[in-house]
Structures are given as structure tokens and as C-alpha cells.
Write a structure and sequence with these properties.
Layout lengths: L18 E2 L9 H10 L4 H8 L3 H8 L4 E2 L1 H11 L3 H4 L19 E3 L2 E5 L8 E7 L15 E8 L2 E5 L2 E5 L4 E5 L4 E5 L5 E7 L16 E3 L4
Antiparallel strand pairs: 1-2, 3-4, 3-12, 4-5, 5-11, 6-9, 6-11, 7-8, 7-10
Helix pairs in contact: 2-3
Length: 221
């Protein structure tokens, strides 16, 4: 049997599902993958386990021997809490740092009302929120990666963190790890209003830990 030259990087000797052939190659992601993993303080084995890949598979991606398909890029972006654009090394457009009052209408989800208070597409999302009183179905217990910070503007807020319960007055704030089971509700009849900041990338308003249900847009303030 005739033996040809050993396959080089990008050839199909050890192609794994989710990796592209050279003709379908995407811009290289190897430098970004290594940097993101190191910034996260993860070993190759730990990062591979999170991404549901083998360490050898992830190593091939990090060294540029293989390129990920788009579905795999989406999974890697979720693993590292970033975007596909960052993985591809694209330079994002400079975002407007100012959010004007009244620029966007309010959004409602399960009786909760949200106003955007920060720029979109950022790693940190900021909202002004009105929490109605007596809507226990909106007080869902949540556990997810990230951090949250809230500041009570009006009314009284009840915050459950793990096994503890706190009653927050106007001017009080809380900062906690979102992996701690948490639940939020208004403790005053008129509801409560707060500023809320979280580090959940690309979250829709309906997916926030503050409430659930479908999102509708209104234009009242």
C-alpha cells in the first residue's frame, strides 16, 4: 500500500464534528480562545469539560490546527461568556455612552416594568425596574452564573438570598453572586422601584432573574 505524506493542519485525518474543512474556514480563533481561557483561569481540561469537548479537541482549536464551525463557535462563546464577534477578533463599533431619558419605551414582563438604563451589547447590563406588589408568580427563584447589584429608589423590597431574607428600604443596595439562589419581591403596596445591574451577556428582558413571562413594549414612564 502506498503511503502519502503525513496530513498537515486543517486536513481531514482527525476531523471532529464541529470543525470545518479548509475551504469553509472561518477567521482564526486560536489566539482569542487561548486568551479567554487564561483570563477565566481555566485549565485546558476544565475549559473542555465546560464546553463539552475533549481536551485534545480544544487543544487543536487553540493551536489553530482546526477551525470551529458556527454552531461550535456559539457554544464556545457561551462557555467563555462572550460573543462570536469577539471570538473572531472583530473590533466592535464604538457604542454611544449616553442613554437619554425617554429614549426607549418601557417593557413589561409578568407585571414587572423595565426601562433600559445602560448601553446594549455590553458585558454589564443596567435597568430601572418597577416591581409590583402581590405578584408572587413573578418572584421566581433563580440560580445562574454572574453577579447582580441593585439599589432601591422607592418603596420597600424583599430580597431572598439562599436561606436568608432581607428587607431593603430606599437608599439600600445589595451586591451578590447570582449562583446564590435568589428571589425578589415588593414589600410595599405601591410596589418598589430599583436600579438593577447584572453581568448576564446577551440576556433578553424576559430572561432576567427579576421576572418571567412574555415581554411587551409600552411607552409610559
Amino acid at each position: 500500500m502506498t503511503t502519502g505524506p503525513a496530513p498537515g493542519p486543517g486536513e481531514a485525518d482527525d476531523t471532529v464534528p464541529g470543525e470545518t474543512a479548509p475551504e469553509a474556514e472561518l477567521p482564526t480563533v486560536a489566539p482569542q480562545l487561548r486568551d479567554l481561557r487564561r483570563r477565566a483561569g481555566l485549565t485546558l481540561e476544565a475549559a473542555a469539560a465546560r464546553a463539552r469537548l475533549s481536551p485534545a479537541h480544544l487543544s487543536r482549536l487553540e493551536t489553530g490546527r482546526r477551525q470551529p464551525s458556527l454552531p461550535l463557535l456559539l457554544g464556545l462563546a457561551r462557555t467563555y461568556g462572550t460573543t462570536v464577534s469577539e471570538l473572531l477578533g472583530e473590533t466592535p463599533a464604538v457604542a454611544d455612552p449616553i442613554v437619554r431619558a425617554g429614549g426607549l419605551g418601557a417593557r413589561e414582563a409578568d407585571g414587572w416594568t423595565y426601562w433600559q438604563a445602560g448601553g446594549s451589547g455590553r458585558g454589564m447590563q443596567a435597568l430601572r425596574v418597577h416591581v409590583p406588589h402581590g405578584r408572587s408568580q413573578g418572584e421566581l427563584v433563580r440560580v445562574h452564573p454572574g453577579e447582580e447589584w441593585l439599589y432601591v429608589l422607592q418603596g420597600r423590597l424583599r430580597l431572598h438570598l439562599g436561606e436568608s431574607e432581607y428587607l431593603l428600604e430606599p437608599g439600600d443596595s445589595a451586591h451578590f453572586d447570582s449562583l446564590t439562589a435568589h428571589r425578589i419581591g415588593a414589600a410595599s403596596a405601591a410596589g418598589a422601584e430599583l436600579l438593577f445591574v447584572h453581568t448576564l451577556l446577551q440576556s433578553s428582558l424576559a430572561g432576567l432573574c427579576l421576572g418571567g413571562g412574555a415581554v411587551t413594549t409600552t411607552h409610559h414612564r
